[in-house]
Fold these 2 entries.
Entry 1:
Amino acid sequence: AAKAAGKNRFLRFHPDMMTALVQRTDMLTGLQLAVARREISVGFQPIVSPRMAQVVQFEALARWNRDGERVPPSVFIPMAERSGLIGEIGAEVMARGLVRLAPWLSQDLSRSLAVNVSGVQLQEPDFADGVISLAEASGVGLYQLVLEVTESVFFDADSSLIKQLASLREAGARVALDDFGTGYSSLGRLQDLPVDTVKIDKSFVSMVRTGRERLPILSSMINMAHSLGLTVTAEGVETAAQADYLMALECDSLQGYLFSLPVAGSRLELAVQQADEAIKALRGR
Ligand code: C2E
Ligand code: MG
Ligand code: MG
Ligand code: MG
């Protein structure tokens, strides 16, 4: 009986594997086409400063609408990283983001645009030059650009990668450590990393439920970052209790659905209004 079951399992497994393979191949072909046709668009999510009580930054997020169906970045970004498409996608998102936000950025030089950068892009020796010329072409100064990288890019960072990040920072760009807390390095390693900001991962923010609990991990992360002279952004802020808690811990910036979802470039003003109102209401309580 065991043998028969095993045989059955094998027979059922095989077509599934084929289907998965076909779907993956199809998805990759679709992504290649979308990149070639420049169909990767950008979603913009506001980031607010409680101290300024207003939107101070937008994060640009890649969007792929495939025949009316949204494919999430968690699916197509890893695929793009494996297939060599991430360089083109990253450049497209940065270029579109800079052009779209240039007017908003020029109104106040303390405003900035954050863009996600994959470790694969940083392997390209001309990455830094590419970023500098994109910024120049859009008329946006590098000091208004934030590059978000995850801890993993520093694991076996070669000297070329470190040099590129260093030259971008020298030119004025800032670097943010994305998804902070989810990587493998300890808090202690933070002082060795060439970053200006940490973005606390939403999994930590979601630990705040009532706002009355003690969460030593969250306060340690923020205090440690501050004591190293870094600014702190919290991502995934969904409730007023979470925002209040983070504000009490002196978190510098907040991002999340409580303020606004990521929006299309045509809805920037609406998103700013909505997020401004939300942070003003919180401060006024
Ligand atoms: P991330 O950089 O950490 O971006 C934040 C993610 O959290 C976004 O997901 C955003 O939509 C989502 N988010 C924002 N506020 C909330 C909230 O209040 N609650 C919840 N549950 N989620 C919230 P998204 O757009 O699906 O992107 C996922 C990840 O894909 C990004 O995480 C980033 O790692 C990657 N990604 C997106 N665009 C790009 C890109 O252009 N280049 C690269 N290399 N990676 C990208
Ligand atoms: Mg990010
Ligand atoms: Mg993030
Ligand atoms: Mg994240």
Note: The first helix runs from residue 2 to 36.
Entry 2:
Amino acid sequence: PLKLGIMASGNGSNFEAIAQAIADGQINAQIQVLIYNNPSAKAPVRAAKRGVEAVLLNHRDYKSRQVFDTKIVQTLQQYNVEWVILAGWMRVLTPVLIDAFADKIINIHPSLLPSFKGINAVEQALQAGVKIAGCTVHLVSLEVDSGPILIQAAVPVLPDDTVETLHARIQIEEHRILPQAIALAAAGQGSRGAGE
Ligand code: GAR
């Protein structure tokens, strides 16, 4: 199985979707560790229920993004992580982390990239008045919210939508395409004869 490290900042519904897909046999992978950066995040509560170890690395305790990412890399290596999944990770990554796991970091973003990069993507979509919104799973490269797109899904924007209602509709699709993308990565890894 592919050894995953998941990084989350908040609710962790995408963490849950990945854990469930593994439990259901849809992904040949195991979650080695959850890294979270906010003490009040719900993601570690979900991890505990699934028997997954959770490590709090609070960015506020580190003097630069590079020092923070160095600690993240050490932690991921300590848990023998092969692929990193950003499941609602709200910090910008530095080359320290991106180069340590080159082409093995997957991100989920709540827009149809390259539209609406950065924070508040759902709000940006509403403000732009687009009629179709969605989400993107992509490999992480050095620029924020860029890198090869793996899967996208679209949803309609309805006339009375708020950020909350539109985000909820997008998240249904996130929970489908993020596990799907990881399954593809796991299958690709297996076919290269890793023997695991
Ligand atoms: C998801 O909608 C994800 O796309 C978004 O945060 C949410 C986390 O939800 N990520 C970003 O905005 C990254 N810039 P979750 O904690 O319930 O999985």
Note: Residues 163-191 form the longest helix (29 residues).
